Amino acid sequence: MDSTICSRCGAFPEDADHLLVGCTTAKNVWQHIWVWLKISIWAQSSTVREVLEGVQDQIRCKNWKKMVMVVTFATFWSIWRCRNEGIFNGNYIPTHKAAEMVKEETFIWMRNRYGPKVHIDFKILQEHYTDKITPPGQR
């Protein structure tokens, strides 16, 4: 019988919340993503639900919320892909590479959704919408 212990950290049982949010490897990927988006919240999230609720509850601007939600799902997907790459192919993907995969996935998903002529300038989005985030405890 295969072990249910997390293949990445080897410390806890692997369930969806641990794999996608709670594992130290996942936390490192999220740290890269939050820094990239210039968001300093959700560091204490330990479940998928808490991350999704954090996006819904703490970002007030509709367009920025949509963008962060796409990035959130791309992060979940990339963490899952990296985990599977390690388990099934024996290839460990470092967290900084996983974070780059998130950026690539986000771009591809947005391109497919809005067409090839779309130009996504994350820097402008960050600068314009970062002030639209409600800090924890001020909701």
Question: Helix tally?
Answer: 6
> Could you name the ranges where pLDDT drops below 50 across 5 or more consecutive residues?
128-139
Structure classification: mainly alpha
Give the helices and strands as they follow along the chain. Answer: HHHHHH
- Beta-strand share of residues: under 5%
Overall helicity: 55-70%
- As a whole number of angstroms, the C-alpha radius of gyration is 16 Å
Mean pLDDT: 82
Please count the beta strands (DSSP E, at least 2 residues each). Answer: 0
- Overall body shape: globular
Biggest beta-sheet profile: none
Distance between the termini: 46 Å
* Domain tally: 1
Describe this structure in words.
There is one protein chain. This protein is an all-alpha fold. The protein has one domain (16-132). The chain is built from 6 helices and no strands. Helix 1 (16-22) crosses helix 2 (24-37), helix 2 (24-37) runs antiparallel to helix 4 (62-89) and helix 3 packs antiparallel against helix 4 (62-89). It starts with 15 loop residues before the first helix and ends in a 10-residue tail after the last helix. Residues 128-139 have low confidence and may be disordered.
